[in-house]
Amino acid sequence: MINKTIFAGNKMSIFMLALGFLGTLVSCKSQEESDSPERPNIIFIMSDDHAYQAISAYGSQLIETPNIDRIANEGMLFENAFVSNSICAPSRAVILTGKHSHINGLVDNAVRFDSTQVTYPKILRENGYQTAMIGKWHLKTQPTGFDYWKVLPGQGHYYNPQFRTKEGMVLDSGYVTDLITDFAIDWLDEAKEKDQPFMLMYQHKAPHREWLPTEENFRAYTQKEFPEPASLFDDYEGRGRAAKEAEMRISTHMGLTNDSKIHPDIVEKLGHKDFIDWYSNAYHGNLDRMSKSERAAWEEVYGPINEAFEKADLQGDELTKWKYQRYMQDYLASIESVDENVGRLLDYLEENGLAENTIIIYTSDQGFYLGEHGWFDKRFMYEESFRTPLMIKWPRVIKAGSKNKDLVQNLDFAETMLDAAGVAIPDEMQGLSMLPLLKGDKVEWRDALYYHYYEYPGIHAVKRHNGVRTDRYKLIHFYYDIDEWELYDLQEDPHEMNNVYDDPGYSEVRENMHKKLDELVEQYNDEVKVPK
Q: What's the fold here for domain 465-523?
């Protein structure tokens, strides 16, 4: 006869042993999980046409940007960050795909983005990330690879803008920079409640032309005066046809209507003519979007500016100086809103316990001229448009206050985000992961960057060119309707005022730079196509 008491005791002993073994497994698993780093959230912040010269972390004498500076102060500031093609849509395509323009197919603003391509948001989404795209898209096709998207159609508008959504077009009341931030925070509020990391592309329209600031900021900035760059009246002596023939001079190509905010009737009365008639239409189109109160505030400030301009009847260099000041007032006032809203987002992350394990990237789609060489806009491989701001904050990895001098490029952004998320980087991507640089590791890095600009013939008439930049030298080849070479010694001539391509003293440098350019053309499988 079975002794039920003994059997029951044995069952209890076996049960207790099993519980102990299970507890050991759970304990080991918990320890293993705690040793494995949590996958980081990622927020990619990109403004449009934000020059590094207009960020105080880069030593700007024009504006203070305390909130954008927070990212640099609490993370890493890149002193040598560049783009591969300095124009809006192509830069965005390079960032998404990790491939040069000639490979991803979007070489200029007229081309539609092939959204079937592999992009880093698609890869992150496939690997468990929540993904969203909010703000300026500018790629014509519908965003893909995102759980949620709400984007501006084309360039979008500053006041009371429309947005494209999966459900169709919607009209929102407010100022575009504030609205994009509102939508981003609303999405983050939902994303943080889910047991998944997130990746948000938070992309501003500002400070893209036509530079319409908020009332608070235009009231403040129209009272300010800004220092002129030394090369505002550059005569392009020592450079070739490309610089001389480009149509982006403040003096003759910047519009008095939508750029300087002067009424078309006054422009006509004084005998001026805007370079492109579109400017007058843009002037009316933007103001017509405003509410009655917004329009009244605008007229209260810009009305007297118009009256003073008409009375002064400026000509020549004095008109150029006046246009430069108007340009800076509205451009920088638009940046003020970006900085304010970046601060809102950073505060939100801290208040919700998300800051520690969230990678924050701040950049622009390219640089911009703020009167240097007498120009506005971008496109050239010269420093002001080729170079872009870049700062990255990741408290768990990056030492606060770090600075990096390596040659990095927007070609590297996709690879860096994938690597940081622990996701394999596709072989077809052409950039490098900056993760070792973020960690402060000593690694062998590239010694040169490749650049190629295509949009010619086109607005601003910047000729097609490609080139190579090292830490000291830059070689540029302008082609298509010309065949001219320029070489700059950035150590001796940081403002690129003197082309030394034909200087015998630089013959060895010229030869080495040609070799380096040929190597990069081959490495990236590119070619220069000249029409027959």
A: Arylsulfatase, C-terminal domain (3.30.1120)
Contact 112, 141 (CB under 8 A): yes
Place of tokens 């007058």: 280
Instruction: For CATH 3.40.720.10, list the domain ranges present in the chain.
Output: 41-211+335-448
Q: What is the pLDDT of residues 399-454, one digit of tens each?
A: 999 999 999 999 999 999 999 999 999 999 999 999 999 999 999 999 999 999 99
The confidence score (pLDDT) of residue 11 equals: 36
Kindly report the pTM of this predicted structure.
Answer: 0.92
CB 176 within 8 A of CB 289: no
Q: How far apart are CA 338 and CA 354, in angstroms?
A: 21
CA distances from 98 to 59, 276, 425, 426, 432 (A): 30, 35, 10, 9, 9
Query: Helices 292-312 and 316-351, interaxial angle, to 10°?
Result: 150
The 10s digit of each residue's pLDDT in 304-343 is: 999 999 999 999 999 999 999 999 999 999 999 999 999 9
Q: Where in the chain is the domain with CATH 3.30.1120.10?
A: 465-523
Cis peptide before 457 (omega within 30 of 0): yes
Q: CA-CA distance, 73 to 392, in Å (whole number)?
A: 10
DSSP designation for 411:
G
Cα→Cα distances 391→68, 362, 404, Å: 9, 5, 10
Mean pLDDT, residues 389-402 taken together: 98
**pLDDT at residue 532 in the model:** 58
Using the predicted structure, report yes or no on whether residue 5 has a pLDDT greater than 80: no
Correct CATH for 41-211+335-448 of 3.55.50.30, 3.40.720.10, 2.40.420.20, 3.40.718.10: 3.40.720.10
Torsion of CA 373, 376, 379, 383, to 10 degrees: 50
Q: Say what angle helices 88-97 and 413-420 make with each other, to 10 degrees.
A: 30
